[in-house]
Prior knowledge:
Radius of gyration: 24 Å
Number of helices: 21
Structural class: mainly alpha
CATH superfamily of the largest domain: Hypothetical protein af1432
Number of domains: 3
Amino acid sequence: MYEVEVVNSGKKAQLSLYNRQFFAVILNLAIKNHTGLEVLKFVRAKHAGQRVVVMLDSLEMLKKDDLDVQKLVKMGATEVMVRPFTMEQLKDVLEGQQTIDDLVKNIPKPTGSTAEMEVSESDANFTKVKIEEFYTGKAILFNVYIQLGSNKYVKILYAGDTFSLERLNRYKNEKGVQFLYFHNADRQKYIQYCNFLASKIIASEKVSGPAKVKMMKATAEKLIEEVYSVGLKPQAVEESKQLAQNMYQLLENQTDLYQVLREFQEFDPNAYTHSYSVTLFATAIIKQFEWQSKVMIETTALACLLHDIGKVKMPRELVDKRPSQMSQAELEIYKKHPEFGDKILSNNLMIGQNIRQIILQHHEYFNGTGFPNGLKGNKVLSISNIISLCDDFVHFMITDQTAPPETLKRILVNTELVKRYNSVILENFIKIFVDPEKITKNSSLPSNSRMVPHKRAAS
């Protein structure tokens, strides 16, 4: 798929980088004559932004230099792979490094007629998106369809076509089309474009807060759907990190976020939607703490997006069930999903131990009534307790079909529910619905503990 230049020493690698531009560098850390680490430092100093896939013979080779994967990432590695790996796995990693410009450059040019064409194909091969949530650039990145019936579709847009909003509105208004469809294989491209677009509009004052939140929701839904369907591939990890960065920018730039959160309504019980809703409220809570930081907010967002990933190991019929609807046997399986999630993520070198620890504890409660380990008090990570609060909150909001302020009242008037969460977290949850200008620096509410960020979670 790629034109490749091969060099057999670190010195030649640096010379090649000096003379040419590369889409990506695949760097064997064991290379001699300027070591792999020296090349990595050179790339970071002289070629900021260069994608570097570091290749290791084993994780053990890092120990002699007192390194681990996360330190390599801080040094400039965008991905770390341990041999043996397949060419398909390497292909996935390289595709995960592609930018929107790369995707646009490789859009196939339409050949022949681009008239609407009816096709018969299994429904299982398609992803659907609400027509008003379909985002694209001037050129369509992939074929787009509308559904006629079971296993029957009409291709209405071809990859490379010029996008026409008027045409799309005609389908919506005149023909009553509610959803557009594209092949599952193109879902990653859609996620990537939505993430890219969100990063551009978040700082814009011309786009409303609700519109920004809606776009990020559409991105998150398809991202989580991709993870549930094909697993946590490198592309999904990259897009999860980008979405986490976008969430941070939203919190930084949206001055009326408190109003957006007050009016936020999402009553879809879908597991994909749930993860985004939890992310939105949890990161807003983190923003209220004095110790909040860009890294902390992005860490929280990434953990929230992936907090229920362990459910992919549960029987499919349990994924959208609430615990109150489960038999005792089903409940026992459900209570293992934090551990399932930890195990899934342990196989991904780009997800740090801090994220895994947060996810393992996301159903632990401050009063010790949570699971899987019944931790209590400050043994529960602050971020995990925030996620458990937001997880409960979003489920109540969906079940009761109530706006966020009314849902919060349901929690605050229930003594047993209140005991589940550190009171400092509850205080800051209340604050996210209040105009910041009305909160004075001297105001405080009684707390049941001293709240400090967990060192490992903040790393």
